[in-house]
Amino acid sequence: MKIAMVGAGYVGLVSGACFADFGHDVVCIDTDPSKIERLNAGEMPIYEPGLDELVQRNVRANRLSFTTGLAEGISGAGAIFIAVGTPSRRGDGHADLSFVHAAAAEIGKNLDHPAVIVTKSTVPVGTGDEVERILRESGTDVHFAVASNPEFLREGAAIGDFKRPDRIVIGTDDEWARGVMREVYRPLFLNRSPIVFSSRRSAEIIKYAANAFLATKITFINEIADLCEKVGGDVQDVARGIGLDNRIGPKFLHPGPGFGGSCFPKDTLALLKTAEDNDAPLRIVESVAKVNESRKRAMGRKVIDVLGEAPRGKRVALLGLTFKPNTDDMRDAPSIAIAQALIDAGVEVTAYDPEGMELARPLMPEVAMLPNAYEAIEGADAIVIVTEWDAFRALDLGRVRELVRAPVLVDLRNIYEPEELRGAGFTYISVGRP
Question: Global pTM?
Answer without folding.
Answer: 0.93
